[in-house]
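Suppose a colleague, Dr. K., hands you the sequence of a protein chain of 252 amino acids and asks what its three-dimensional shape might be. Before reaching for any lab equipment, you can write down a predicted structure in token form. Begin with the sequence itself:
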Amino acid sequence: MSTEGTTLAKAQLVEVTFNDDGEVEDDTGSGLVVPIQFNPETLKVTYQVKKANDDQQGGSAVQYTGPGETKLAVELVFDTTVSVEAPPQQPGDDEQVGAGAVVDGEVKDVRVLTRAVNYFLRPKEEGGEEGYAPPGVLFQWGSFYFAGVMDAMNETLEFFSHEGRPLRASVSISITQQKVNPKIAGTNGGATNSPDAGTTQQQQTPRTAAREGESVQQHAARTTGDPSNWRATAERNGIENPRRIPVGTQLA
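The predicted structure, expressed as tokens, is then:
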């Protein structure tokens, strides 16, 4: 089957918020969006119920103590031996990332990329008596949609430059949601937080053809009047090299 003209779906991590029912109320990318450099090979989903101690006397029935939870385990690979642009800077990054980690907008230290993933483990202060809580995170890859809270991240630095700077890393993350009812794209009646809703909107959004030699930044400036919109344009259209767009490519 020919795949000419199709766009490769790219995985991404998106900062989201939840309503009182635990449902995503904002998955539009208004918060931090971390594009995944290479799509993962596998996704491991674990469903687990919450129950009382199994060591009960007299053969009593197992007592369930909550609605259960679902865990997503993903291994991500980041590599700076290929050209990659720096992600949006977060508060405190300038204090933790040393000189030479980013040169002319290109990442030279893979920890710049992995820190963007680590953002979802950093508690944020909430109002009232709720104290601190990590931001909500949505892992989205095509029709796979999983929103929860990141509770673990393991980073392995694998390849170093002659200066001792890490260039490649494997990152294992775990995300937990407090339910055991998985969301499958296309089965929730077109709810606003469904990935199908975003796909339909993208299909209905007017598109403009790229000009010869045009970069994503130049295209964003020409079509939206604001060159800073280039990152959102690249992510929405699945563009891996924002510096060069094939002439005639239709961009939303």
